[in-house]
Amino acid sequence: MSGKKYTEEHQVVYYETNVTGRLNIGNLVDLCMLVSTIQSEKLGVSTEKLDEMGYGWIVTQNLIDVTRLPKEHEKIKITTVAKSYNRYFCYRDFYMHDENNQEIVHMHTVFALMDKKQRKIARIKDEIIGPYEGEYTTKLERLANPRAVEKVDYDKRYRVRFMDIDSNQHVNNIHYFDWMLDTLPEEFLKTHEVQHFNIVYKNEVRYGEVVDSKTEFLQDENVSLHQITVGDKLSCVAEVKWQPLK
């Protein structure tokens, strides 16, 4: 495994779970992002340092594979490694293990460096990526894209609150998970959990905007397709494979 590994321990607390007592998928992603942030601080490339340089990391895609979600009070270990990068993207993996050292979650994440002033993706600088000791590659990963929503089975509308905005001045990614999954029926969410989650972020969502969350459910596949739009602008898409709650 190329790149420096970093691990943090965490005990799941009640406010990170839902009514099933399992960790919310959005909170799971947030915990992983926290571990990567702590590693960056320890390597001398903190969020504050990047901000001084006029940059910030953004996520363009998450691929999440779940054997099972950890439960309230459960102790877990979260390990991350920035495996590889090219001129514009960094590929980082996250591994979640239980107390028996069994891997229960794996997440593959694509990061890009954003120029905060110009609001566009910037070329990754050596002084920023070097400390992670990932492998440089000229290749772009060809990851699967979620299928598009064709027939809307469920939809809800949300207004973006001040509390939804992070330091990059756009909606924190955790809220996309909430907006998408909240469209599904309560009984289904009580009896199922995510098995695979492929989410792609397309365009920023900002404070005060109204988002439409639309879902198509493919019954024969146990798959839900999701899209988040602001007016005619597509902001986020996802494809979720579900499994019965264990």
UniProtKB/TrEMBL annotation:
Similarity remark: Belongs to the acyl-ACP thioesterase family.
Domain Acyl-ACP thioesterase-like C-terminal stretches: 153-243
A GO molecular-function annotation: acyl carrier activity
Keyword annotations from UniProtKB, A to Z: Fatty acid biosynthesis, Fatty acid metabolism, Hydrolase, Lipid biosynthesis, Lipid metabolism, Transit peptide
Protein name: Acyl-ACP thioesterase
Cross-referenced CDD domains: 4HBT
SUPFAM superfamilies: Thioesterase/thiol ester dehydrase-isomerase
Acyl-ACP thioesterase N-terminal hotdog domain mapped to chain residues: 3-132
Top-level taxon: Bacteria
Keyword Amino-acid biosynthesis recorded: no
Keyword field contains Lipid biosynthesis: yes
Coiled coil feature spans: none
